[in-house]
Design a protein that fits this description.
Helix content: 25-40%
Structural class: alpha/beta
Strand content: 15-25%
Number of helices: 6
CATH superfamily: Flavodoxin domain
Low-confidence stretches: none
CATH architecture: 3-Layer(aba) Sandwich
Oligomer: single chain
CATH class: Alpha Beta
Radius of gyration: 16 Å
Length: 179
């Protein structure tokens, strides 16, 4: 059965290692007949959550007038949410964190999302430096009652093409096919 997958892509870099890792995931997911929608959140106008709870009073409608309704509408129809990010100071990028925080608006609704995955790239700190981001992902899955479908982390990447030829690309492809 075909799945509806939404990717929140947090890298501000175009054609970098995170792009390539995400492209491998998309290739696998689409080859299995899944529909994939990707949002480059770094290119979108997304403000930080204000914690005002307007979205709870107004049934998922945020008080802010920015690009986030596009993402929220897609997530309302998604079976799977994938977060893709390079490691920035031991976490996901600020741009991705803004979007993730704003998914708070969906907590008051019944939604189809049942699974989530995390794709990350990292420089010198490698896989170990991603522990905080992985902990956030795992906690988010538990809080949302999502199945943690998988994590693919490619560490030790310095140059923009360092991921080429790495096994993590096939791991991402396989995760996309199997998800």
């Amino acid at each position: 059965m075909s799945k509806n997958i939404v990717i929140l892509f947090g890298s501000p870099r175009i054609d970098g290692n995170t792009d390539k890792l995400t492209a491998a995931f998309i290739e696998g997911a689409e080859s299995a007949g899944n529909a994939v929608t990707m949002f480059r959140v770094a290119d979108m106008a997304i403000g930080g959550c204000r914690g005002c709870h307007h979205c709870f009073v107004e049934k998922g409608v945020c008080i802010q007038k920015d690009d986030m309704p596009l993402i929220l509408d897609a997530l309302r129809k998604a079976d799977i949410m994938v977060m893709a990010s390079p490691l920035y100071f031991f976490g996901v990028t600020a741009q991705l964190k803004l979007a993730v925080d704003r998914t708070f608006a969906l907590l008051s609704e019944e939604r189809p999302t049942k699974r989530a995955a995390l794709l990350m790239t990292a420089g010198r700190g490698g896989v170990e430096a991603c522990e905080g981001a992985v902990a956030m992902y795992n906690r988010m899955c538990r809080h949302s009652n999502w199945d943690a479908a998988g994590v693919v982390i490619a560490g030790g990447l310095q140059g923009k093409d360092d991921i080429l030829g790495r096994p993590e690309l096939e791991q991402a492809r396989a995760l996309g096919r199997e998800i």
